[in-house]
Design a protein that fits this description.
By secondary structure, this protein is an all-alpha fold. It has one domain. It contains 12 helices and no strands. The longest helix is centred in the C-terminal third of the chain and has 32 residues. It is elongated, with a radius of gyration of 20 Å. It starts with a helix and ends with a helix.
Length: 262
Amino acid sequence: MKWFIKKVLTILSVYYANMLEYRAEIFLWVLSGSLPIILMGVWVEAAQGGKFVLSATEFARYFFAVFQIRQFTNVWVIWDFEKEVIEGKLSFKLLQPFDPAWHHIARHIAEKFTRLPLAIFLTVLFFALYPQAFWIPNILNILLCLMTMVMAFTLRFLIQYTFAMGAFWTERATAIQQFWFLFDIFLSGIAAPLDVFPSTVRDIVMWTPFPYTVYFPVALLLDFPVNIMSGFLIMFGWIVIFAILNRWLWKLGLKQYSGMGA
């Protein structure tokens, strides 16, 4: 166990140091995810002139929470993995005594730590500019949100890493992710809270994996009326499904990869 922990800490420290070298680039990554902030202005303005389930202040809190949670659940593994397969770099990682996936996981976790100071700064700045949106969640909501954020990152990573297996058969596995994103941006709660959807549509969407990467953690943080137990079970179910699918495609892909002479 001590040997395993030491290896994990070593890998994390290496990738953390690597991420610190790209602080400016990470700042640009954060800004590139500012779509929720743009949409916040649209929905806040709409709420002031129309009748919605949420008030203008609640819309502001919602989209800021979406922005922050996406900072810690974003994933880009498909682009890295596709490059490794195409350039043959995966071959070197296959010689190591552990699954190459751990390299990607360590890099993602290290990157989250480098975002933390910036996330704190943006939180202070947001409430300074929009003080009427300030609120303090209770400790239970915070703990539930943190738990679902970890699960949301796990689910998003497994989904995208599963799509990345397509790189064994095509040079454009990222096209799968881009197609998935068309649904994700609307059904995950990025473009609008699911509370503004018709109840029938919302009930159907809640059975898909989309809401559990964004909407569900945000809803728990803001204390929206959601079925917590059902949400966790569905979320866990999708994690298991994509984990199994990922390992199956990994084994098939390795045969294809070796068959290509790599």
